[in-house]
Write a structure and sequence with these properties.
Blueprint lengths: L14 H12 L3 E2 H8 L3 H13 L3 E8 L2 E8 L1 H21 L1
Antiparallel strand pairs: 1-3, 2-3
Organism: Myroides albus
Protein name: Helix-turn-helix domain-containing protein
InterPro entries: ArsR-like_HTH, WH-like_DNA-bd_sf, WH_DNA-bd_dom, WH_DNA-bd_sf
């Protein structure tokens, strides 16, 4: 198998976006605060990566309230799940070939 950079999804080149998608693949949704704590990020850093994933249509954003406090949750879209799985599958196959 020859390594083909074009088969890797550029959106997932960043470890933070990989972390976000990993969390969303195993959870139906996660709040902003859950993701921030899980990944040990600042608000601004997390927000910029979430925006990138949202613009790519890989996640959806739901804004609501818990009591009087705002609560923003994120979920992976079907397109996002498929793209992430394809990215991981290509990496797995590449690793298997290199053994």
């Amino acid at each position: 198998m020859k390594f083909d950079l074009d088969k890797l999804n550029k959106v997932f080149d960043n470890r933070i976006r990989v972390g976000i998608m990993s969390g969303l693949m195993v959870n139906e949704s996660l709040s902003f605060n859950d993701l921030k704590e899980y990944l040990s990020l600042t608000d601004g850093n997390l927000a910029s990566h979430l925006k990138n994933l949202e613009e790519s249509q890989y996640i959806t954003v739901t804004k609501g309230f818990i009591g009087r406090k705002t609560n923003t949750t994120y979920s992976a879209t079907e397109e996002g799940k498929m793209a992430f799985k394809q990215h991981l599958t290509y990496l797995e196959n590449l690793i298997k070939e290199l053994k």
